[in-house]
Task: inverse folding
């Protein structure tokens, strides 16, 4: 998503040229390019698919909507398996129209995972609950903290359900250090994603994430925290930013690698 | 602020006409109308001043900036005392430019309160730390949860420092019930403010609060929670909303009273 203006072949070529070993994919561009074609493209390039984004939106009350959401999530699991990634990221969903019941919505997510967790595990795919920043609690994701995500995930085996540590969503929370340790101890850090927090936020607050180093997030702190918690998996950079998307995609990829080296790799301050 | 388009005399007349017994004031309109004149205006109308907004912005590192912030907060305390309110609301401040140290910023707030708490108490004014939604953590307030606010407040006597329960900032947090109980047990709920959460958020995310009943917040739940925690003080409605401000102010006041009766007063569902 950081360079979503690039068609998949150009994205893959760019990453290979920069020495990036893997790529996190979203379902929509995969569907446009074709699932089998995408799997062949990345495999032929020697890239791993780190995660597939995204399943989720599991909070509907209406039975028809719930059945449709479950079917869509099973399809997402199948797509993840076809792409050869072991992780499907879940954005859990917001409040149904007219509802003010956050606790009830979270319970419906748990209900859905009871079905989806085993389905995914049978296909070699782990579900990763991504807590989203509390500013999305009403309309995108009622799971707002890493603690809430773990409270949900720990009802299931770790090989079925884990969590995503995304700096953009979690940086403000003074409980995040303890929760990263908890997640690591349980083997539940299934993905680690980076974006910086910059202000002012744009209307709709979706596409204002910052390039690494431009904002308030201490990237090295997060890097060290997940490492100390035992995480050895890929690090994804996922920046939704209208400004980045308006630029040359290859330039954005190169800048992101440079920023990653400056802000994430290297010694702590 | 809900009807900030109204000059103070019209605001006061409107509230008296609607049977509203008190008003929360902001420093800027008070300064424009004159401190003594405002005090006389509200006293002559028989209104209480529920709170004065706002002090705070106590996170600066630079010594000159810190001294200026402390002086401004002492002035705010003096103004609160002159207006006859017992509560000054604090918006604590964001990260200084270039800083990523949330914990350090929170410690500087505590340092400032060591000086400001006694100064306020000597003048019959309580400081009320308002946790702001985490989307403001970088640029307005590093105190993002009621738990963090209480962790700060409890370092001081309750007659010096308490907290604000504002539905807009706290509604998403599944720990808020326990923290409201904690605040009430300690006699630290110094203010209770209402606004609803509506989406999409506007650019800058400051002036998109919802009229009571339009959004995701369960107002009666909050009303009951603070009541069960022992709170018997005033209830303020504080809605920053460009749409409300563009309308006739008296109409907005009347609508707000109607919504308050519908959404807050009356039996729980």
Result:
């Amino acid at each position: 998503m950081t360079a979503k203006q690039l068609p998949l072949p150009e994205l893959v070529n760019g990453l290979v040229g920069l020495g990036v070993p893997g790529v996190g994919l979203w379902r929509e561009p995969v569907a446009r390019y074709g699932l089998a074609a995408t799997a062949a493209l990345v495999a032929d390039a020697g890239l791993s698919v780190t995660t597939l984004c995204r399943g989720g939106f599991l909070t509907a009350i209406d039975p028809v909507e719930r059945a449709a959401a479950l079917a869509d999530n099973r399809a997402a699991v199948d797509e993840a398996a076809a792409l050869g990634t072991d992780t499907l990221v879940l954005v859990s969903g917001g409040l149904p129209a007219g509802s003010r019941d956050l606790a009830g919505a979270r319970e419906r997510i748990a209900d859905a995972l009871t079905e989806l967790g085993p389905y995914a595990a049978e296909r070699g795919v782990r579900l990763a609950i991504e807590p989203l920043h509390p500013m999305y609690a009403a309309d995108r994701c009622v799971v707002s903290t890493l603690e809430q995500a773990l409270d949900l995930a720990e009802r299931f085996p770790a090989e079925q359900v884990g969590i995503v540590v995304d700096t953009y969503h979690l940086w403000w929370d003074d409980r995040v250090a303890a929760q990263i340790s908890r997640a690591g101890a349980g083997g539940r850090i299934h993905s680690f994603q980076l974006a910086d927090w910059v202000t002012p936020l744009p209307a709709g607050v979706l596409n204002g994430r910052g390039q690494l180093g431009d904002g308030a997030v201490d990237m090295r702190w997060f890097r060290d925290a997940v490492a100390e918690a035992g995480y050895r998996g890929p690090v994804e950079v996922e920046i939704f930013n209208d400004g980045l998307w308006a630029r040359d995609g290859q330039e954005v990829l190169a800048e992101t690698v440079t920023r990653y080296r400056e802000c994430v790799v290297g010694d702590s301050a």
